[in-house]
Amino acid sequence: MTATVRAADVAAGTELPEQTFPVTRADLVRYAGASGDFNPIHWSERVATEVGLPGVIAHGMLTMALAARAVTAWTGDPAALVEYHVRFGRPVLVPDDGVGAEVTVRGKVGAVGEDGRARVDLTVTSGGDKVLSLARATVQLG
């Protein structure tokens, strides 16, 4: 499968559609089961606050995966993602209120190479705070 976004249709400055993903405590439980990361800071308010966090936080890799999902949704092909880098800036605080948190992903194409690869610069926020820093994806366009 190749990306449905064609290199000929993309230029530096092209913006990806903004995507917002809800993250609930139930999502953290499901992610813990899938990943094997049962660190109590991802489910126990008591433990999270004892170690100095403001509350239960989402797994960093879950946050990273949501941002990657926004990129692959744009390309139309998960295999189009050929390189991906982030730095974790701030944690995503997930309150136990039935609503949880939201992670918002915005992206802009920073460059398109002659090889059909595009660098996508991402801005990932939750609660108004930037949660991933220096987030960049390289995708192979169709």
Query: In percent terms, what proportion of residues is strand?
Result: 25-35%
User: Largest beta sheet, briefly?
Assistant: 5 strands, antiparallel
> What's the quaternary structure here?
single chain
Q: Roughly how many Å apart are the termini?
A: 9 Å
Written description of the protein model:
With 142 residues, the protein is α+β, with helices and mostly antiparallel strands. The protein has a domain at 7-23 and 59-140: Thiol Ester Dehydrase, Chain A (Roll). It contains 3 helices and 5 strands, in the order βαααββββ. The protein has helices at 25-35, 45-50, 60-75, and strands at 19-23, 81-88, 101-112, 117-126, 129-140. It has a 5-stranded antiparallel β-sheet. The chain is elongated, with a radius of gyration of 16 Å. The chain starts with 18 loop residues before the first strand and ends with a strand.
